[in-house]
Write a structure and sequence with these properties.
single chain; 246 residues; alpha/beta; Rossmann fold; seven-stranded parallel β-sheet; 9 helices; 7 strands
Amino acid sequence: MAQVAIVTGSGAGLGQRIAIALHKAGYSVAVTDIAEDAARALADTLDPAGKTACSFRLDISRKEDFENALAAILTRWQALHVVVNNAAITPIAPISEITPDDFDKVLSVNQRGTFLGCQVLGAHLADAGYGRIVNMASLAGQNGGTAAGIHYSSSKAAIITMTKVFAREYASRGVTVNAIAPGPMDLPSVRALLSPERLAQVMDMIPVRRLGNPDFVANIAVQLASPDADFVTGATWDINGGIFMR
């Protein structure tokens, strides 16, 4: 039987690319998104018969949504092996214009959502004695961001730290936890967020002078999801065109 993966926020953008790559690699994939129609459309595209792809509406700020998704996956496929915590919101705003509610909303989605995914789904993987968790962090969580707001950057920095904590927690129980920190990707969502002038400024900041390939990022996620990736945990994989080097 194929291994089973869940990808949050996979109705569009980078999450969609990751779900497609995992399915192509032979995984059965649960496509989840707060936009239920988008999730269903991708699942139907991956497998119209529904044998190796399904979809659920999942609000990552709600613990019960993770619990319900896990129960549904176990009912359908009797197992879960891979968790990709990808869902996030990416607001852009000057520091002086961010209200406390704005700040709390971003952290309650991005940071809390990744925490709940690692806590609820990760606990199941640990109990089963095997699993792979891939958290989508960001360059913004390492260098403070090139375009996004401080609330987004702060949430992504927290994800990098949580990745280490959960990696240590689950390491002896067969579960690895890693993060990927992409820089600006060549995605419609990125181009929609930035004006042509701002996009040109961002491109000038990238040493390789181009946006990143989201399919390459998706393939890194597939590698980290592999059973062979058993000696990689607590790591953050930098894919940023040279903006942040260490």
